[in-house]
Amino acid sequence: MGISALLILICHLYGYVDLSVTVQYILSLGNIGVDCFLFLSGVGMWNSLLKVKSREIKYWYINRYLKLFIPYLTVILPLGILGDKRQPSSSRIAI
Length: 95
Known about the structure:
Layout: H1 2-13, E1 17-18, H2 21-28, H3 31-50, H4 57-82, E2 93-94
Parallel strand pairs: 1-2
C-alpha cells in the first residue's frame, strides 16, 4: 500500500510542474497506484471482517465508519468555514 500511495503522489506531481511530454507520460502511469491502493484496501478490510464474530459485525461497521468520518469532518469543516483560498492553476512552476 505504501508503494501505491507513493505512485499516487508522484502521479499528481506533473499537475503542478511543467515537465517534458515524456516525463509527464511516465508520471501519469502513477494512476495504477490508485487501482492497487483500492484493491489492497479492500482485501485488508475483507480479511479484517472475516476475523469478526457474527454478533460483533455491527460494532465493526461503526468502528470503520468513525475511522472515515472523523478525519473527513476534520478536513471539511475548516474548509467549509474558511473557504478555498488556493491560487488559480495558472501559477505553475517551470522546471
